[in-house]
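Q: Predict the bound structure with MU-OXO-diiron.
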Amino acid sequence: MALMKWDATFSVGVEEVDEQHKKLFMLINLVFDAMKAGKGAEVLKLTIDELIDYTHTHFSYEEKYFSKFNYEHTKEHKLEHKKFIDKITDFQKEYESGTALLSTEILNFLKDWLTTHIKVIDKKYTACFNKNGLK
Ligand code: FEO
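A: Predicted complex:
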């Protein structure tokens, strides 16, 4: 069973962002599946790298519109993004150096963080984005 499943409660009312969030869920599920299937370190590393790359892409996409629309919660939102990137990058380094193992605990952290971030933090920009024509 997939670790993350997208449903309408995750919609932020902006189609492109919803698609990007779905892709993030898919990538987390890929990491989860690779871990469960006991895939080798190289496969896991590539999957984690892809997840991190796409997280950067997604955060940059949102932040581009924060600037463009002069979004009032830009500072706090960008700080949340930075904290998450720092956390997963630390994990990536520890994993690659062999001092950390990929565990259900880490994946549950990703799942919980993303769920709360989308439902609480991302949803705050819906009105601003929609008002500026991004739906
Ligand atoms: Fe969809 Fe703020 O990340």
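A: The pocket of MU-OXO-diiron is lined by residues 21, 58-59, 62, 77, 81, 117-118, 121-122 (CB under 6 Å).
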